[in-house]
Each structure stands twice: as structure tokens, then as C-alpha cells.
Amino acid sequence: GITRHYTFNIKHHNVTRLCNSRSILTVNGKWPGPRVVAREGDTVLIKVVNHIAANVSIHWHGIRQLRTAWADGPSYITQCPIQTNQSYIYNFTITGQRGTLWYHAHISWLRVSIHGPLIILPAKNASYPFQKPYKEVPIIFAEWFNVDPEAIISQALQTGGGPNISDAYTINSFPGPLYNCSSKDTYKLKVKPGKTYLLRLINAALNDELFFSIANHTLTVVEVDAVYVKPFETDKLVITPGQTTNVLLKTKPYFPSATFLMAARPYFTGQGTFDNTTTAGILEYEHPLGHNSHIKQLPLFKPTLPPINDTNSVTNFTKKLRSLANSKFPANVPQRVDRKFFFTVGLGTRPCPQNTTCQGPNGTMFMASVNNVSFTLPSVAIIQAYFFGQSNGVYTTDFPNNPPVPFNYTGTPPNNTNVSNGTRTVVLPYNTSVELVLQETSILGIESHPLHLHGFNFFVVGQGSGNYDPNKDPANFNLVDPVERNTIGVPSGGWVALRFLADNPGVWFMHCHLEVHTSWGLKMAWIVLDGPQPNQKLLPPPSDLPKC
Ligand code: C2O
């Protein structure tokens, strides 16, 4: 591979959406940020320069970072954040991965507008395992806020209440024609008839799983989270924050100047005070004679998206995702298991501090936890404390393997809300084969939790609703061609079973990719020890690693 150089200037930029102007945080003045493009096997050097008043760090979501955890990016996990007027060069090599990933800020809620596509093309002489597309188009879903999201989350954390929601969902930063004062701010994709387009879908939204569909067109799913899947056709899909999905779009043979809406709107498993609006873009067929149509009305063709609580659509879609699992792209599902973990994930409350009025349920404060531990970020990076043998006062290694109280979800809120705070980690010897069952508790929330693991892909060997049954469910695990990915929606009141091989030494964050749940503590970290061979050890830290 070759070495590719990028510079990211983190700076303010004025943007107007929904007739509201605001200075937002961007990479190089762009939202979404610039495309990072590399081939499998390349080394990427990205110099990030911080020109804003706040601390920042950037995460390369889904990049395995083999032995280079220092370049992973989550603040206080694998680095101290980059301070104002400081810079840091992220240096990593792309090994054994190709497809669509993305990057985003990894501190507080700064990823709301600091994000962009990270595209890994196949190695020089390799090709796609599907028809070569005529064009490749990133489609990024995100959220627009009329006010500063940092103010929203800091106020929510102070009062314990739920944060205010965004004002619009966006497609490539545009809310689209279904919002007020927004028809000019519409993403338009011009296509030629009879061609195949590769759409690289990325859900960069802070807090919402989304359904997506294009009117009158079928999409062929070919890849998720930069892993090829067995292709299948669908007219709608679901994508959680953190996930990426590549689809082929075949345009129709002859449709001069026809326009179709593409649209996305949220999926939640219940009804709440959530935003239920729709972002839309326009797919426009070129006119063969070359005149440009001027669209004055909404396209006639609109997609039907599932209702907000349509769990069946979600299950039907996710059930179809299978690894390609052929000789060229095998699914290396761990067949043996060294360590089994059962983690409950969900929302709860904590008591309101004295002399405070709290806005959480019944005057409490919202919190979120994994195995009843609400994770607190330390004030120095865990990886530095680990590498230099200074864990004292930074983190502990006693993260529970199981919830402290046996868990049983009966459909009514179970009584396991005694939550502790801490920076508790799990230590894994190199090459441990892990089976991890994530059980959603539905104590308060009604949402699925998109759990994201840094540093690894995992195989989703099982999934179900209700309680996980360790005596019955493993018999149905798929150990042949389960989907391999880095972010999985743990269904509300249900479970998923994952397997991964801990072959990447370092410190690896795992958290809910709904940003508000991360803020409330739905996060933890794994420490994977060095192996005996020199090429199984975490590399030493780069000399420009930021200091806290
Ligand atoms: Cu995409 Cu830790 O995040």
C-alpha cells in the first residue's frame, strides 16, 4: 500500500438550515467533512489541528487499528483530547478491511457536525464481489439543531432530564423539502438511466435509528460496516447510528426528467416524545437531450416508510443480513469460546442530589449503565495509565461478567436499578475468544441500543426478544455465516449474542451509539493484553500524543 496524507482543520463555519443561521463545528469548514479515501493496505496519516475553543479528538469508526490503539480517537480512552491550537497526527494502516466506514469527533456531542465518510477501496488488483458500479455516492444521515447541541446536553446532564431533540434529520446535511423553510436545502442526486450506483449509507445521527427508502426503486444490500454480505434486494432498510450500509441502486432504463424522493425517518420501538419527522432528498433522472429540468414541485413519487414503531420491519431486515462467507471472503466465526459474558444494557435513574430540582422520571435523574455500572470517563486516558503501569486512581479491572442481580425481563420494569459509578474495565489475555450476550432491560427506555465495539468486528451469532436463555438459545446460534460488523442494534426488551477474537492489543471502548445514552453512562472499556510475539504487542505511543 501507499501512504496518504490529510489535514483536518477543526473550525467554526456558518451554516443556515430551516431559516436559522448558526456557527457549527466542522472539518475544514465542511459539513459533512471531506472524504477520506484509501485502499486496503494503505497507511493513512491525518493531521488534526484544533482551531476551536473546546477540546476535540477524532475516531475512525470501524477501523480495526491493529496494534495502533493510540490512533483510535475516543477522548480519555485512547488519548487525551487535542487542546486548542494543538494538533495530533493519527497514523494507521488499513488491514483486511474494505468498504464504507466513517470518522467522527469523539468527545461530548461534537460529532453532531464533525463527521465524514471514510472510504476503503479494494486493494489495487482486487475488485468488488458485485457488479462494478457506474458511480459511488456517499449518503450521510445526520441531525440539524437550531441551537448549540453542547448547551442542550450540558443542561440535560445538570437537570437529569432528557435533552431537547434536534430540529431536523438531514441527508448530506440537507433537511429537504418536507420541512418548513427548507425546499432549497435539498440534496439532489442526478442519475443516468440504466446504470448501477453504489450508495454508501452512513448513519451519523446523534440519537436516532432511521428507516430509509427511495420511491419506486429497489436497493440491493451488498455490504454493512465494511464487510461484504450475501446480496439481497429490499425496498427499505434500517440503519442505526454508527452503522454503514452499501446498496446498489439500478436506475430505470428510460425516465427523462423524472424525480423520486429518497427519505429517512426514525424507528423507535415505542411511542414517546420523539421527533417523527422525515428528511428527504431527490433522485433526478437526466433528460436525454440535456435540458435541465427545474423542479418546482415535490416529486410525484414518494416512498412509503414503515411507521415509527414497526419492529417487524426492523427484524425482517436484520434477519436477512448474512456474511458473504465464501472462499475469498470467509467468515472466521470463532468456534470455541474462552470467556462468556452476559451484560445488561439499559436506562435507569439515579436519585436527585439535595437542593436540586431534577427533570428525570418522578423527579430523579436519568442514567444508563452496562451491568449496572454507569461508566465515568477518567481525567487522563486509560490507555496511557495502562501502558505506563499507572492505573491507580484511573481505572479498575473489576467490571462484572454478569449483572449483580439475576436479570429477568417480564415486560414490566424489573428491579435492578441499583447502579454504581466507576471506571471499571475487563482485562482479556491476547487471543481470548469472547462470547458476549447483550440483554436490553427496558427498565425505562423504549429504544433499541446500537452497541458499538472499537478495535474489532464481531459476529452476530444470535438474536431474540425477551430474556436470553443460556440453556436453549445457543442451540440456534449461526456459526456459519452470521453478519460481521462493529455496531449492532440490541433490540428493546431483547438480546443479541456476539463473538469476537481478542487479537488486537490495546484499550477498546464499547458504548451505545445513541449519544445521549453514552452521556448517561452506557459505556465500558476492554483491555486486551499483549501477546507473546513481538507482532502481538501494542506499539509504543506516538511522540505527539496529546497530554491531558
Ligand atoms: Cu462511532 Cu465510540 O464511536
From TrEMBL:
Localization, UniProt: Secreted, Extracellular space, Apoplast
GO CC entries: apoplast
Major localisation: secreted
InterPro entries, per database record: Cu-oxidase-like_N, Cu-oxidase_2nd, Cu-oxidase_C, Cu-oxidase_fam, Cu_oxidase_CS, Cu_oxidase_Cu_BS, Cupredoxin, CuRO_1_LCC
Enzyme Commission number(s) of this protein: 1.10.3.2
Reaction(s) the record says it catalyses: 4 hydroquinone + O2 = 4 benzosemiquinone + 2 H2O
Domain Plastocyanin-like stretches: 10-123, 136-287, 399-530
Gene3D superfamilies on file: Cupredoxins - blue copper proteins
Domain of life: Eukaryota
Pfam families named among the record's database cross-references: Cu-oxidase, Cu-oxidase_2, Cu-oxidase_3
Cofactor(s) the record lists: Cu cation
Gene Ontology terms: biological process: lignin catabolic process
Co-factor note (free text): Binds 4 Cu cations per monomer.
GO molecular function: copper ion binding; hydroquinone:oxygen oxidoreductase activity
UniProtKB keywords: Apoplast, Copper, Glycoprotein, Lignin degradation, Metal-binding, Oxidoreductase, Repeat, Secreted, Signal
Function according to Swiss-Prot or TrEMBL: Lignin degradation and detoxification of lignin-derived products.
Family designation: Belongs to the multicopper oxidase family.
PANTHER family: LACCASE, MULTI-COPPER OXIDASE
Protein's name according to its UniProt entry: Laccase
Organism: Rubroshorea leprosula
